[in-house]
Every structure is written in structure tokens, then in C-alpha cells.
Amino acid sequence: MATKLKKETASDLESLKEFKKLHIAIVVAEWNSSITYAMMNGAIDFLIAKGVKEKNIEVHKVPGAFELPLGSQYCAEKKNIDAVIALGCIIQGETRHFDFICDACAKGIMNVSLTYNLPVAFGVLTTENEKQAKERSGGKLGNKGVEAAEAVLKMLLIRNSTI
Ligand code: DLZ
Predict the structure, then answer these.
(1) Beta strands in the chain, from DSSP E residues, in sequence order
(2) Best of 100, 101, 125, 144 for a ligand 1 pocket test (most atoms within 8 Å of beta carbon)
């Protein structure tokens, strides 16, 4: 059975010792790894800063963003996992690959989240080029890996304030 948090409001992220009990899985795509690993490092640092224990954060690598839904499902099936953070970076190329991968990835991750009733963050950049991706993975526009990590913590708080 996954850990139960005490009831807290979603805006109360600063001071939650309950985060120490959480087990979080990060599923990260190896495609565009200079980007996705920067997102992963941002997510890990954020979780630890909020009180999640490093030993309770597990990282699983999948080949590309197309594999993120199944990788997330493998993690969601594990009874001790409280939330999953899926991280990827899909960069527009010359073919229609981009559209198919984005679409499959987004729908697949949402399916896992709803099927397993578990927060599964969509930390996937869908950019026109590498420059835009760099700006969003620790550059001037922040780090979407951090935002994905924040999203799952907030969803766990929302879950515990509604049940
Ligand atoms: C094939 C492919 C392409 C063209 N582009 C990307 C990308 O920008 N980002 C990404 O994460 N993965 C890409 N892939 C790989 C697919 O996600 C997938 O790994 C392969 O099609 C094998 O199923």
C-alpha cells in the first residue's frame, strides 16, 4: 500500500515532513539526454529539497518519449510507488514523427495516471528546436523537470485533502 500523507493544502509545500515517507519513480527518456537528464537532476534536487529521501527516489531510463507511458505503467504497478514523473524531450524534425510521438506520449501518460489513480507528471518538452529545449531544462525559462516534480507533490496533497 502506498504511503498516506497527512491532509495539507496544496500551497503548503514548504514545510511538509510527510514528504519523507514518499516513494517517487522518475522515468526518463534517453533521447535528447543532455536535456532530459538536466530535467531529471532538477526534479531530484527539488524532491530532496522538499523532504523526499534520496533513497526513495528511483530512476528508470527508457529509450525515447514513446516508451514513457509503458515505463510509467511498470512503475505505477509497483505497490510502494506514490507518484511517477515522466521526463522526455521531443524535438520537431522534418517528418511527422514529432506529432505521433507527442500524441502517443501525452495520451499514454494520462491513461496510466487515470488507470492507476496515481499522479503521473507529464514532464515532456515538445519544442521546435534544441535551443527552446535548453531554455526549458535549466535555462532562462526554468526547468520543466522541477515543475513536474512540484506537480506530483501538489497532486498528492490534493488527493489527501479530498479523501
Ligand atoms: C524516433 C524518435 C524521434 C524521431 N525523435 C524523438 C525525440 O525527439 N524525442 C524522443 O524522446 N524520442 C524520439 N524518437 C524515439 C521514439 O520516442 C521511440 O523511442 C522510438 O520510436 C522507438 O519506439
Answers:
(1) 24-29, 57-62, 83-91, 120-127, 137-139, 142-143
(2) 101
Q: Ligand 1 within 6 A of 29 CB? A: yes
97 given a catalytic annotation: yes
Dig out the grid coordinates for 137 from the structure: 531544462
Model pTM? 0.92
pLDDT tens column, 3-38: 665 544 334 466 467 899 999 999 999 999 999 999
Domains and CATH numbers, the chain: 20-162 (3.40.50.960)
- Active-site residue, selected from the candidate residues 7, 97, 107, 131: 97
